[in-house]
Specification:
- The structure is a single chain.
- This protein has 163 residues and is α+β, with helices and mostly antiparallel strands.
- The chain has four helices and five strands; from the N terminus they run αββααβαββ.
- The chain has helices at residues 12-22, 57-60, 67-84, 104-121; strands spanning 39-43, 46-56, 91-99, 124-133, 137-146.
- Strands 1-2-5-3-4 form a five-stranded mixed beta sheet.
- The longest helix is centred in the middle third of the chain and has 18 residues, at 67-84.
């Protein structure tokens, strides 16, 4: 029997609502929950964007055919939310869970693709974690200074929109 009430499934909007109810927002956060593509925080006298994203073959359908392109696309997808807030990606951390079946050449090409993407943004890999599993899975954290502090709310006619 399939349940149709909101308690039977974890829809994304309900999860966001629960997060908002359980966790207080910092006074140093500029944006409200779901108000920007990346979080905007004040550290000292500057504002920074920070974002975390997760990708998998099953959910995101990124092609593994060209590992260099896969690596490059993972960086582009991870940094795009930063760009949408007017933040400049500067620092990058990742957790790579690589498929056990990948040969070393695949991993080398994947890393070169990630490096190429970071080079295009003039961003640097700070480190991260690596492990193996039956299927690949990737998590990236991006941090960078923001001047524009673009949020979804409050947009006015004539303002630039980043996408």
């Amino acid at each position: 029997m399939k349940k149709n009430d909101s308690t039977s499934t974890h829809c994304e909007s309900r999860i966001h609502q629960l997060v908002q109810e359980v966790f207080p927002r910092s006074a140093l956060q500029l944006n409200a929950i779901n108000e920007s593509d990346a979080e905007i925080v004040k550290i000292g006298d500057q504002y920074f964007g920070i974002n975390i994203d997760e990708y998998s073959a099953a959910e995101d359908f990124f092609s593994e055919f060209d590992p260099s392109l896969l690596g490059y696309n993972l960086v582009m997808a991870s940094c795009s939310d930063m760009i949408a807030t007017g933040s400049r990606p500067q620092f990058y951390l990742h957790s790579m869970i690589l498929a056990k079946s990948y040969p070393e050449k695949f991993t080398e090409k994947l890393l070169k693709g990630i490096a190429e993407g970071l080079k295009d943004y003039q961003a640097f890999l700070l480190g991260g974690d690596t492990s193996t599993a039956d299927n690949w899975h990737y998590i990236a954290v991006v941090l960078g200074e923001t001047k524009s502090k673009i949020k979804r709310s409050g947009a006015k006619s004539g303002q630039l929109i980043y996408s």
